[in-house]
Amino acid sequence: MVFDASTASMTAWRPKISLLFFIFKSIKINFLYSKSIEHMKRLVFILFLFTSTVFAQIIEKSANLEETFASASIVVSGQIVEKQSYWDVDRQMIYTVHKIKVSKSFKGKNNEYQYLLTEGGAIGLKGVVVKPTVNIRLYSVGYLMLKNSRNVRLDGFEHNDKLMELFDHQTGYYDYDSISDSVMSSNNFKLEKQVFENNLEQYSKKKSVYVDHELDKKIFRAIGISEQSQVFDISPSTIIAGNKEVLTITGNGFGDFISGNNNGYVSFKNADSGGSQWQSCLKSQIVSWTDTEIKVEVPSDSGSGAIRVTTADNQTFQSSQQIIIPYSINTFVYSLSGDSDDNTEYPIYHTGSMTGNLQNPNASLQDNIVDGAYLFTLNEDFYENEFARESFKDLLTDWVCTTGQNFEITDDVTDISTASDDNTNVITFASTSALGVTYSYYDGCIVNGNELQIAWREIDIIFNNAVNWGYENVTNAQYDFNSTAKHELGHALGFGHNIDSQSLMHYASGTGPGTVSIDQYLSGSEIILARNISTSLCDYLDPHQVSDCSSIDPNTDTDGDGVNDIFDDCENTPSGLVVDSNGCALSELDSDSDGITDDIDICENTPSNADVDEFGCADIDSDGVNENLDQCPGTLSGFQVDVNGCADYQKDSDEDGISDDLDLCEDTIAGKSVDINGCEIFQLPFDNFEINVTSRSCIGSSEGSIILSALDQDYNYEVHINSEIVFLNQSNNFRANLGDLGTGEYDICFYVVGIDNYSQCYSVKITEPSPLEVHSVKNNENVTFFISGTSNFVITHNNNKTSVNGNMYELSLEKGINIVKINTDLNCQGIYESYFFISHDVFHYTSATHNDVVFSFGGSDDRINLSIHDIRGVQLGSSVLTLLNNREYNYNLKNFDKGVYFFKFSSKTIDKTIKILKR
Fold it and tell me: Where are any strands of DSSP class E within 407-541?
């Protein structure tokens, strides 16, 4: 992933803070004289843009919103409806194409779809992780500021000429957060949606254009935070991302995990954006889900901060408690079944050897991973930079010798200066929008039929060749090469970003001395090293080896429990105790975190933070049943309970929705409808009656209709519609059509013949249709019409009628005048009429002449009107030209003075003006 480090030293901050204070004082004075709320908002926005520029100094300074807008050729809002990865035609890099369904256009072409290109992605089991990069999830909603892509041609992609990129590959995507109804991006950018859109329209100096109004209303819809649910506690408070560690969330109102086609999920701050965006866990990462407790594995790339819980019925709430994620380990997401519901995070291993194709055991060995180590090769220009070369060697030595992970630098140099899939782990300076970029390539295999294994097969690191690097005594005007290189090596060793501006793997960095300490990541390196050296991937690759300079001995077993220290989670187990595969005895474990070790604990699953006795058992509701056996936690005081800890008011034995303490009919048949006493009542399914309303009535006319029908044909029905009564029975096939209805409200009640006290009533409206709105975009000899207010219309082009079903129509124009009319079959919606003229070409054999000029005319018109004007616009003469078969006309300029003249030709299909210079 890509590194855009954003941590400025305090020394570097001081002059900027002073300047901010001066600006704030100036703005405060302006507020005192401003009675316009809108003016105040603009001033606050100016201050916001300035502060975000200071903080997010990825390279010298980050572009503010207005600069980004000005630099983009296309600015749209919409939704990512498809994501697909492709090789480039040379098979050197994998790219991902995000297909954007456009809802609104703020700048540039108003196309229905745009195609965003980003580096990285996965094709089958092969892929590349680019850090830093903008990770835009499928079905994400937001705003994109795009420019034409580099000269990238993708293999198998049919729209290469339409590929776009973000403003500088990092900046230009603004995620919409429906919970706060705001727009967010990296560098702590956050702005209310409406204010954000107002600013875009101010920059463009024109109104935005709806490309798909219905989509815009659907995807930009504020949801807000639910007040019905609550988080009481999150444990543990510190946890690792990407290592299958389980976070326990307790509270209430979580509901069922699955409801219909939806499932609940937990979202975490996204470390790749510094926490300004969110990322959701996979469905497979939900370990358990009840109304009061959720257990979830923390996904890779999650960062410190609050969490969000979204229930299966789309209620979202956010915790006030913050969790700390000191580091994240990179993973690979894949579904063996092909069903996205089965997507699973898999660890990615460093190996001791590598082949060209892990799915082929007979593939040839590669020389970039040999003898248990990854071999870096320095680019020749990088090698010639002594400061960079020696600093990189020292920084790599610190990582390798401290952690035991095995990376070396070869004695060779290379002329390779780009990241590409070439089996060379290259270190180079090159052009990039970030301070440093790490490209980590991986490949995989499936063993034993269903076990997926993934390995890093190549790692390239690119350092920016255009910034002012500092190598030793870094000034506040320089970027710290040591900190950046240490960070990129952290990616190579398997770490993602974390959210902590004072730590090495924070996603962003500013000028001045940076962080170089790796202490925070040593425990993570231990996890990565332990699995690397213990696994022979794909049954034939050599395992990774501990580096020669490291003091780590993978064969040491200090406590003699049979589990070597590198795999031992409990390093000081007393002699003679039986341990698990992690080297821990029961006396060293507390699986439910209740303070009682597992060898004593007889209540294994006590809820977090419960008060327990000496045996680890809790009775939180004091009903006499310990919590691990209590099926009804939270019983109110004074109620008698059964052996399961449940009082009558908490039970519903016949599952009719009425608790046992109120149920007068205890044996109701499952599925029957009951009254408040739990006794069966007559009821029909809620979808038994169907009402179809056609709102086609204009005011003053009666063209609307209501169609009524019933599914259950075991009964006859009487239906009251305002003052009218109709029947649904076998004679009309339980269907009635009421036509010739005007606009207005209609009260409809269904009654069952022979059944007392039963009715289902509804209120429906027949409304006047929306007005017809048409927006046209002309492109050469084609014009595209975008229609709202109807999806069925008739377009008449020069007296040729076409019926259209849809909201967009592209028309090829004819030469000459084109009269276009669009209407529906309802006059009250209005009629659109417009004229377009397409001229045949007029050619001339010279634009500068002494006497004669010859004109050649396209089309078939044989009489052409000509008027001649001088450079001041004064008409000098006019005539009607009669063309012969060759459709040429020779005009003699001998009576004209030297100068510039304009010849204007017009006819039924020609409208052209040509400039001629008389010498």
Answer: 407-414, 425-430, 436-447, 451-464, 469-470, 479-480
Q: Which CATH superfamily is domain 230-325 in?
A: Immunoglobulins (2.60.40.10)
- What CATH topology corresponds to 773-838? Immunoglobulin-like (2.60.40)
pTM of the model: 0.64
Burial class, 887, CB count within 10 angstroms (exposed 0-12 / middle 13-18 / buried 19+): middle
Strands lying side by side in the sheet with 744-752: 724-728, 717-721, 744-752, 759-766
Q: Token match 């609104």: residue?
A: 104
Give dist(CA 735, CA 752) in Å, integer: 15
d(CA 728, CA 146): 58
What value, to the nearest 5°, has the Cα angle with vertex 434 and ends 432 and 439?
70
Q: What is the signed CA dihedral for 128, 134, 138, 139, rounded to 10 degrees? A: 180
Q: Of 143, 147, 151, 178, which Cα lies nearest the Cα of 165?
A: 147
The CA-atom distances, in angstroms, between 734 and each of 404, 688, 706, 753 are: 78, 11, 14, 13
Coil, strand or helix at 368: coil
CA 662/CA 718 separation, integer angstroms: 35
Tokens of 125: 């089991």
- Indicate whether 487 pLDDT > 50: yes
Model pLDDT, residue 878: 93
| Residue 137 DSSP code | -
Q: Is the pLDDT of residue 123 over 90?
A: yes
Indicate the fold that domain 842-918 takes in CATH.
Immunoglobulin-like (2.60.40)
How does DSSP assign 619-635, residue by residue? Answer: -TT-SSS-TTT-SSTTP
Whole-number pLDDT of residue 50? 33
Strand 344-349 relative to strand 451-464, pairing: parallel
Average pLDDT over residues 515-544: 93
User: pLDDT band at 63, cuts 50/70/90?
Assistant: low
Q: Do strands 792-797 and 173-177 pair parallel, antiparallel, or not at all (unpaired)? A: unpaired
Least confident of 377-391, 559-573, 703-717: 559-573
Largest pairwise CA distance in the chain: 120
Q: What Cα–Cα distance (Å) separates residue 142 from each residue in 503, 637, 658, 747, 800?
A: 30, 51, 45, 41, 41
User: In Å, what is the CA distance from 433 to each residue of 392, 416, 505, 515, 795?
Assistant: 21, 19, 18, 21, 49
Which residues lie closer than 8 Å to 566 by C-beta, 6 or more apart?
A: 526, 529, 530, 533, 552, 554, 556
CATH 3.40.390.10: does it fit domain 348-539?
A: yes
Please tell me the chain's helix, strand, coil percentages from 3-state DSSP, rounded to the nearest 5: 15, 35, 45
Q: How high does pLDDT run on average in the chain?
A: 87
What's the pLDDT score for residue 669? 87
Q: What is the rounded distance in angstroms from the CA atom of residue 351 to the CA atom of residue 541?
A: 7
For residue 779, the SS3 value is strand
Q: Residue 358: how many CA atoms within 13 Å on its side-chain side?
A: 28
The DSSP secondary structure of 655-677, one letter per residue, reads: -SSS-TTT-S-TTPPTT--B-TT
Q: Determine the topology of domain 66-219 in CATH.
A: OB fold (Dihydrolipoamide Acetyltransferase, E2P) (2.40.50)
